[in-house]
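Feature request, filed as a ticket because there's no other form

It would be nice if the structure record came with a short human-readable summary line next to the tokens. Right now we just get the raw output. Example of a typical job, pasted below so the devs can see what we mean:
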Amino acid sequence: MICCTNTNTALFFSSIDKIPSKIWKALGCTKNSYFHPDFLKSLEKNHQKITFSYIVLVDDKNQPIAFASLKIIDFELNSIKNDFKLLKDIGRKLHVFPDKKPLKLLICGNTFISGEHGVFIKENQDKKAIIKELAKSINHFVNSDKKLKKQIDAFLLKDFAKESLFISDELKNFGYHRFSVEPNMKLEIHENWQNFDDYLASMKTKFRVKAKKAFKQSVHICIEEVTLINIEEQLPKMTALYEKVASNAGFNLGNFNLKTYKDLKEKFGENYILKSYHLEGKLIGFISGIINQNSLDAHFVGIDYQLNREHAIYQRMLYDYIEIAINKNLKILNFGRTASEIKSSVGAVPQDLTMYFRHKKTIKNKILKLFLQRIQPTPFQQKLPFKTVETKHEKH
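Raw output as currently delivered:
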């Protein structure tokens, strides 16, 4: 546990349970599931290898005005594949990254979910001033603990959307370098989609045929709700499927413990989506996600890759997410990162995301800047599955 002295502008907490309820009340952040103590506590409780800490920024009257979630992880550089591999290899040659041991990384953000889920700022605040204060508070947090100051190799503030960059770019004044990562794939749910058939009807023939084919291929799959009654029995198999998907990712900030689902289901009930996919009695996949205000955010999925092509498991999952979002009258479906092209074929468009990185040592940080600038998300072919106004008369 890290003990950090409070400052005039920041309060530091080593666990969710230590944050008084009056602070949550004053912040007014709990409408957003990602800043609800129940959500944060579920992550904290089920990930013992991660050190969780929290910063509450206060104004000159000592009133809470912002909240930030920090995590300290041991990042295994060997888990990096694809685009980041070059960065890892060069970084090791130039001794920017440790050779044998993992990188000790302090992250502000949610390590498991893409999106702006690390910093909450109250309305009517000077956001640029708050980001500056946050950067100072993170430095204070690390520097006030001798052991931690020695251990931390680098800092990462993650997942800022394009419209936030004019605020988050304040971090550049604190030695952070920004780089682009895989986008969040986002689908806007049209008002005239009353049901899934309406969604299909809005598609060009080619994409509608593709959807119908996926339903035909997946016709023998039995989909069931994962509930508090049946979750224990399904978790080991779900975990095995999740691990297969996670091992294919090019960049992973840590393995998610699926036992967290039990807590999330307990706390969020129907607003936490968890469904399992079975074929002839065998578990072949699952989907998870949260209804957060007016959006459905897809979380982790598990897939039996050997059966995926034949039974269109993943394709079916994407359509199931869409159907849930339509049936629940939501406005946005966030599919998250990865598999951008297939997600674009069901109508999702990319939402650019930016991270900020800083190495503890000045020289190494300068070297890193040169390589971070070269990181680009993997290009993909954006599909346009919906009819344009001109093709609305097309027969179907």
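Something like this underneath would help us a lot:
The chain has two domains: 10-182+352-372, 186-350+387-391.
Residues 390-396 have pLDDT under 50 and may be disordered.
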